[in-house]
Design brief:
The protein has five helices and 13 strands. With about 230 residues, the chain is α+β, with helices and mostly antiparallel strands.
């Protein structure tokens, strides 16, 4: 698979993925065109270079940035797009710059950086596999059983078959999607499991939700891009 530029965006092939929710026992299928996804979560070094801030509780250039809200992640995507002369993916209304960018809209034609949808995330995580994980958990993920209850540098575990690291474990990753608007309002989807999670949370299908202003030490994000042309 092709990788582009400094941020290691891999071209993920088109495909179909079936998602499921244990709480509602609902299953749904999504057809996806090809898209770009970063090899690993956004690092503290990149986040500081773009924003001038390093919000994480653990410190290290190659550690995933954590302690970032969904709103922080959306604003970072636009800031990085502006920095590289790309069209920002999000239209964000004026408001509190530190809060939830309520009413943010995604321009599906923009070539800038964005968060993956949860369907894109799961399709990329599975990388053509059908099991709960794309390999033996201790080989592919930092989780509560092997992390010494701390964050680890990106890329330290074996990648999946498409070359993507840390899709499971290390930090949960924000996705674009609202979890269940009727029940949870604007809560957004988190995927992947984190360094403090038991093994059952580190599976391709597991969905978690949180308020878009949440900032906590096991939640980060990964860059995606819409492939144009």
């Amino acid at each position: 698979m092709k990788t582009s530029a400094e941020h290691g965006i891999i071209a993920v092939p088109a495909g179909r993925v079936t998602l499921s929710d244990r709480r509602t026992e609902r299953r749904w299928t999504v057809d996806l065109p090809a898209y770009g996804l970063a090899v690993h979560p956004v690092t503290q070094e990149l986040y500081e270079r773009v924003t001038g801030e390093r919000p994480s509780t653990a410190h290290g250039d190659r550690l995933p940035v954590e302690g970032v809200s969904w709103g922080d992640a959306v604003r970072f995507c636009n800031a990085l797009s502006d920095r590289e002369g790309l069209t920002p993916a999000y239209r964000i209304p004026d408001g509190d710059p530190d809060g939830d960018p309520d009413g943010a809209e995604w321009d599906g034609n923009a070539d800038g950086y964005r968060l993956p949808t949860e369907a894109e995330w799961e399709h990329a995580c599975r990388a053509g596999t059908t099991e709960a994980r794309y390999g033996p958990l201790d080989e592919i993920a930092w989780h509560r059983g092997n992390s010494a209850e701390r964050l680890h540098e990106t890329g330290g575990r074996r990648p999946n078959d498409w070359g993507l690291h840390d899709m499971l474990g290390n930090v949960w990753e924000w996705c674009w999607d609202v979890y269940d608007a009727e029940v949870y309002g604007g809560y957004r989807v988190l995927r992947g499991g984190g360094w403090f999670d038991e093994h059952w949370s580190c599976r391709a299908s597991v969905r978690r939700r949180s308020h878009p202003t949440l900032r906590i030490d096991d939640v980060g994000f990964r860059l995606a891009r819409t492939l144009t042309g």
